[in-house]
Amino acid sequence: MSEVTDKRSDTTREQILRAAAHQFAQRPYYAVGLDDILAEAQLTKGAMYFHFRSKHALALAIVLRTFFIQAYKIPSGSMEPTLLIGDHILVNKIIFGLRIPDSIFGLAIPGVPLGQYVFHLEPVHRGDVVVFVFPPDRTKDFIKRVIGVGGDTVAVKNGVVWLNGAPMDDPHAHREVADTDRSPVSPRDNFGPVTVPPGKLFMMGDNRDRSYDSRFWGFVDLNDVEGRATIIYLPWNEEKADAASTLSEFFLWPEYLRWDRLGMIVH
Which terminus of the chain has fewer CB atoms gathered within 10 Å of its CB, N or C? Predict the structure, then answer.
């Protein structure tokens, strides 16, 4: 969530700004899944702190966050090894076009095409890592890789993804389950084939054995794609930091960064 502070002494002004910031940050942005077998965890919008000197700065921040760029935090391993637990990423929200959010300060405004694209720019491609509104629960966001676009036929055979009748070139896939332990009836291991309808996407996590994705809940509408992951700006080793004391985490914070991932472009 975003926290907005204004240190001016004008109490009324401060209350107004705080109320606006509260409305701005009220939506719970999580990607939720299954533990253990699926191990999907929350995708949370990264905390970003601003010192606002005017209502114009607040308005600008809202516009940037809503339509252009968004910070997220990855707290699960469903996209490993591409995205690790604790990675903080930036998502380009204008790359595919201008999308109106699902609500404006939590309100549905008549006549406004909420949750729709006003215009499109670059198309969504296979292989893109995107953030989207989770179809079964539109209060939550997920992040996955695009496996199939409209017209593609997708299947999973013994843990291997097949695209349009052939094994897919799948350099990002990570598998943990041995072939001998795969189930003939689990959609995790054997699924489809299904044909992706026009205007829809088939999504999967890179950690194929621990991802709650389109194999379980279906397709994603193109209008629900919110942006494409671009860069890891803070590769925080959350598991290591959580095991340390608060004092240690504060003074020895460089030890909890994965320096080799700092500034890494998300592919």
Answer: C
